[in-house]
Fold this protein.
Amino acid sequence: MRVFVTGATGWVGSAIVQQLLGAGHQVLGLVRSDANAQALAAAGGTPLLGSLNDLDSLRRGASQADGIIHTAFGLDLTDIAKSSTEEQQAIEALGEVLAGSDRPLIVTSGLGFAPAGQVLPEAVSLPKMPGFPRDPEQALQAVIGRGVRATVVRLPRTVHGANEQHGFMPMLIRAAREKGVSAYVGDGQNLWPAVHRLDAARVFCLALEHGAQGGPFHAVAEEGIPFKAIAEAIGQLLNLPVVSQSPEEANAHFGPIAMFVAGNGPASSEQTRARLGWQPTQPGLLADLADYAVK
């Protein structure tokens, strides 16, 4: 199968490319720069220069593919609304090309907050997070309504692994290093789901090979880790004290990610494991944190 992967050199996308190539598929990857094009070519893929706001390049890549995995998101994280609009238009453009065919489209989404005492199952319709406009699943539903065979893979709050530099774990480690303490909010018993990037990549590949049937899928290896345990692992990593903070103190300590730090969001992957035959094999988050080296 020839697979078009957006975000082909990204944190999750590069792991997906590695697994697709290992399974004998061909990869055409959307990349933003010559350096990324060289990296993808060295890995064994074929680069296509472009971006999410270059809809012609997206359509060109989609037209050459037997299936698509969409993982890219805009680089401008200071303007999530703009990046979210670009993503929606990109999904619509990919869907236009696939309409009327049986070629599968796999779109990346994320898991948000869960009500107290509840675990998010695959069948749940995720509510929009307050103040966070990204909603790829809405765009995906519009594409499905036009007859495209498509589904979503939802990623948990942390997709961890060696050399991670841009996700929540590096942000938390940097905050602890800068402030001199590793903090959690209240009793720290709010739960964070987690997955290793290589295990997450396998869910995308299986979803594609299953023809985008049976989703949504949850790439969740650990249903919910108490955030206090994460703070303690970071404290041990940096040899710093671990402290409880009030919500007001946490806002000052963590800045824009404070609501995620305090948020509760356990999620199940029971149906994903049953439908795809997926079993995570990589280290868990707390074991991984012991080997992190974030600058």
